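S1.2 Input.
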Amino acid sequence: MIKKIWILNHYAISPDMAGGTRHYDLGRELIKRGYRVTIFASGFDHSTKKYIKIHHQERFRIEDYNGVRFFWLNTVPYYGNNWRRVLNMISYGIRVLGISRGIEKNPDVIIGSSVHPFAVLAAWWLSKRYKVRFIFEVRDLWPQTAVEMGAIKATGIPAKILYAGEKFMYKKAEKVIVLLPNAKEYIEKRGIESQKIVWIPNGVDLELFDKPDYIDPSSEIAKVFRKHKNKFKVVYTGAHGSANGLETVIDAAYLLFKKSPDMHFFLIGDGPEKKKLIKSALEKAIDNITFLDPIPKSQIPIILQQSDLLIFCLRNLNIYKYGISLNKMYDYFASGKPVVMAGNTVNNIVQEAGAGITVEPGNAEALAKGILKIENMTLEERQKLGANGRAYVEKYHNTRVLADILEKIL
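S1.3 Output.
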């Protein structure tokens, strides 16, 4: 019997958008196996703060991507990290409850995916309405991450409410999916039995890298890469937020400005820190770094494959004792390029895979030295690091492998 899966993920995206496509990728794989997958997401884009998938006067819009059905919901817009963002989250939870009525026969399983609790609460409520199974997916340990980053106080009323809601959802869920390798320890301390917890990390659809999408030669990113085609290209893709530690990249680029004139940095993406980062680069008067707009996930493979070295940075936070599972990291590995990570995490996947170098977080000099070390390697040595990363994701983070785990609990 065909199983109908509903996934409630406020920030889910389709492959023509910029960002992580976890649920689309898993959904596409499940469809090949006879499932029907519907994703409920916001038509107001979290990254650009614009209505991308829906007109502001529409209640919802339905689109199909290779069999994966998206319900784009009209949620309250917001433009900063303030009370309107909370209203945006609440509006998602309320509107998904209303839109889901009568769209088809009852689903068989509903997956509620955090970051915020209202999507998960709505998923649980729908599971009660339709008398079906409820699975809670924990993408971030919320509110613990917010506490660690200093956004809220652990002893404050908002945190206490969120901790109570988190524990409530853990108890109500039939299964709890975690992305972080050591998140199980955290959840067990909340009084949840270990057999409920299933680890399904982020992964990558390797088909996208084996058959990379075409990129318009007249696009800005294509022109910039052509302009610097003879340079050693150091590339970052993803969010430009406080957790991404990109100020360290700016400082490293400054240190390498005269030391390595044949090197150029590309920061591709968007986020609340981007303007500040651009200003910092201008103040340092360096021209070895280019900031580019986000590109669709489908174009990431071809860009990464034109790079020489891929980088990402993390702040030195205690929350990383539970590990990391970054979409960009698996994309990097899949591209077959070497990686430099500035971070201190319990699961050092770059080291485990033998795919590159890890340096101390927040240390621009250490990052610069790591980048130089890779640049000074022979082409064969760099190719070996890239091949190690590719072999690692093929074995452990291929979407097909992850879909096998998900199917077992479905």
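S1.4 Remarks. The first helix runs from residue 22 to 32.
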